[in-house]
Write a structure and sequence with these properties.
Blueprint: E1 2-4, H1 6-16, E2 23-27, E3 40-41, E4 56-59, E5 73-81, E6 95-99, E7 111-114, E8 124-127, E9 149-151, H2 159-167, E10 172-176, E11 181-186, E12 190-191, E13 202-203, H3 206-216, E14 221-227, H4 231-241, E15 247-251, H5 262-269, E16 272-278, E17 287-291, E18 294-299, H6 303-322, E19 330-336, E20 348-355, E21 358-360, E22 379-383, E23 395-400
Parallel strand pairs: 1-16, 5-6, 11-14, 11-15, 12-13, 15-18, 19-21
Antiparallel strand pairs: 2-10, 3-9, 4-6, 4-7, 5-8, 16-17, 17-18, 19-23, 20-21, 20-22, 22-23
Helix pairs in contact: 1-6, 4-5
Function: Catalyzes the insertion of molybdate into adenylated molybdopterin with the concomitant release of AMP.
Domain MoaB/Mog: 182-320
Enzyme class: transferase
Length: 401
Amino acid sequence: MLNIELEEAIKLMNKSIKENGEAEEIELIDASGRVACEDIYAPINNPPFDRSPLDGYALIAKDTKGASKENVKKLKVVDCIFAGGYSEKVLERGQAIRIMTGAKIPKGANCVVRQENTNYGENDVEIYEELSEYDNYCFAGEDIEKGELLIKSGELLTYVHIGILSSMGISNVKVKSKLKIALLVTGDEVGISGYPLMEGKIYDSNLNLINSRLREFGLRTVISEIIEDDGEKVGKRIDEIIDKVDLVITTGGVSVGEKDILHDALPRIGAKRVFWKVNLKPGTPAMYSLYKDKPILSLSGNPFAALTTFELLARPVLAKLTGDKNLSPKKVEGIMEDEFNKPSMRRRFIRAYFNSGKVKFKGNKHSSGVLSSMIECNCLIDVPKGTKKLSKGDKIDIFLL
């Protein structure tokens, strides 16, 4: 398909790929940012026993009836329990057991008096308040009940999930295998950072730009390299790596110039082109192909165009492959605080800064080859085709970065 809308491009990509179904078991400490591939249920109660929420004395509520500083109730202290310990005694009327925060409440006790409302007695303790059953009393399973669903399959694990699973005594968890991504940057004109810049060349930014963005999403490439503008060599390299990866992303070589070699490279190996050219600016020449049922997303070589189409096209692919919906582009409404007087003959995406519902520009450089004005920008304004200008106060749609 040629010259299609962004939404149609996303539908075609989603239809052509399946979520990565491979799983692996890893240590819990390494699971943050990974996607669970099974439902996880609580194997125990948390807390696993009735416990005290404070330092005080475990006792029987009836023994405190009418207690006050003017009407002191005195109980015999028969034991002391620290956190991590327990008492084998069964509490009887007229008795109390000294207890610390988090310790298991002894049998027979049905409440805890805080130590501030006592005389801190060691052999006998004076009680200065009346309590009801289960005052200052934490029940087993109060936080989590045994059998409760903790994690749903497909859920992205965060540090909070890790803490909860750890409190259940779980040390390993099954997660989806990490996505294997290849990134190929094409172009005879690009030089490599760290080496002298040759005449007529520019340093490449796309390799590190996209690699860094992937890392922000918790993803990493397994193959990442710059390759010259040679259709035969690019095709051969894709053929060599396709069985080792789940996704190939390329930048450069997708327009209509003599050196736009993806149009030669992909047919050489028998890749099927699904679409070419998306009705947006920058990044119109974006192309999507399938080879051995593996997706190949080819983006423009201009830095801002590559970044824009990565955000709009690659993120939906990554979300589908990983099963992590958080990777999908996020679209919200905003109000313009600046003006943009250039007419948009086609759907256009402009870098901007979004805060508290307001959208403004950080600088005035909007060329697809300019990357520096992306500093401090955190959104892309979605400007519909045919828009003559954007004025202050206009309601607009934006994609958050």
